[in-house]
Amino acid sequence: MSASGAVQYGFYGDDFTGATDTLAHLARAGLRTLLFLAPPDRARLDSVGPLDAIGIAGAARAMPPSAMAGELARAGACLASLGVRVMHYKVCSTFDSAPEAGNIATAIATLRRVFTNPFVPVVGGQPGLLRYCVFGQLFAAAGSDTHAIHRIDRHPTMSRHPVTPMNEADLRLHLERQGLRDVASVDWRAYSLPFAKLDAMVDAKIALRSPAILFDVLCDDDLRTLGKLIEARSRRAPLLAVGASSVAQAWCAADAALAQREHQTPPLGRAQGPVFVLAGSLSPTTAAQIEATHSYWKIELDPLESAGGPPRFSAAPIVDMLREGRNVLAFTRRPAASATNAPQQEASRARTAEACAALLGDVVRAASPRRIGIAGGDTSSHAVQALDAWGLSYRAPLTTGATVCRLHADEPSLDGIEIMFKGGQMGEIDILERLITG
């Protein structure tokens, strides 16, 4: 906690990769920030010293609404008890979610029970990741082609996401399908108004009892304006904000002192020992990154190899190679589209995520690698829960959207492991090589 006894900023990441991106933005702004793997108790908070921001890494993106409600009620109560002014529900920058999985309407309804400020901003873009929201429509780049921007319902990957396909670009309609009706919106033209007029516009929309207000984002200057709104209104009562790490960017941009400084951390050097990478993402971007590597022994994991029961991937060959000093990249096989029907594919994904988590635990306990990479949001969420750790702090950037963190654990063999989390769509083509070289 801070010296005043209250943490200013709290966030819950709906998957681990996104949570670490928010952690990185806050830490680079100079805020003392820790990301906890579960709501921390008083003893844990007292042990870590003063903090300006606290995050809780979760897996709500992959949960049904009933499970989400229970998880977020606990997280929200924890952060509210610490006196945070902003409760940031961190979603993927592509807003991929569905009525039955990662339902954002469920998250808002649950968290508003403890964060009752009528102002609920939904920040619609993250320019640093080439995500843009204009007139309520979401656009995003795909892979390494930064010049091709796709409307999200025509995005080559996100429109075909196996669990939460983005088939609606209008985020108001996307949220309405999940149960959040009558979302208001403020488009980019309003940001050129005097701040008092923009503030009055927001009041008018709140007066119409809109459950949330969607804000366009086209550039970083837009985030600075939104940050001023969030900061000012959070002084009246603690508020809930929804969006990608751009919410944290907006918060920091509103503080002139934070906006003008970039907290320096020691650069990430070459790995001291073999590196283990576990890739559960099935995205084309991750597949291209795997193909581009030349410094790893690659092991393909077949998610259907134990279709008759829970799959269990053997750690023995990976452990042997790591003990010999070799870098190892284990990745799940991408199933043929016609191999199974949709319910079978979903069940297979769940079993695979659990098997990847068990594999990571087996490898870390047996081979003790000191630098690890995990690709895939769901894989990250499950895999880290298999480790007996309690938190993560920012270590260093690796590439846009991918951060290396330091693992915090009571067990000495786990404490201090450097671990990279990468979403399926994130990172440049050589990111896995950089994890070795720094």
UniProtKB/TrEMBL annotation:
<keyword id="KW-0119">Carbohydrate metabolism</keyword>
<keyword id="KW-0808">Transferase</keyword>
<feature type="domain" description="Four-carbon acid sugar kinase nucleotide binding">
    <location>
        <begin position="277"/>
        <end position="432"/>
    </location>
</feature>
<dbReference type="InterPro" id="IPR037051">
    <property type="entry name" value="4-carb_acid_sugar_kinase_N_sf"/>
</dbReference>
<protein>
    <submittedName>
        <fullName>Four-carbon acid sugar kinase family protein</fullName>
    </submittedName>
</protein>
<dbReference type="GO" id="GO:0005524">
    <property type="term" value="F:ATP binding"/>
</dbReference>
<dbReference type="InterPro" id="IPR031475">
    <property type="entry name" value="NBD_C"/>
</dbReference>
<feature type="domain" description="Four-carbon acid sugar kinase N-terminal">
    <location>
        <begin position="10"/>
        <end position="250"/>
    </location>
</feature>
<dbReference type="InterPro" id="IPR042213">
    <property type="entry name" value="NBD_C_sf"/>
</dbReference>
<keyword id="KW-0547">Nucleotide-binding</keyword>
<comment type="similarity">
    <text>Belongs to the four-carbon acid sugar kinase family.</text>
</comment>
<dbReference type="GO" id="GO:0016301">
    <property type="term" value="F:kinase activity"/>
</dbReference>
<keyword id="KW-0067">ATP-binding</keyword>
<dbReference type="InterPro" id="IPR010737">
    <property type="entry name" value="4-carb_acid_sugar_kinase_N"/>
</dbReference>
<dbReference type="Pfam" id="PF07005">
    <property type="entry name" value="SBD_N"/>
</dbReference>
<dbReference type="Pfam" id="PF17042">
    <property type="entry name" value="NBD_C"/>
</dbReference>
<keyword id="KW-0418">Kinase</keyword>
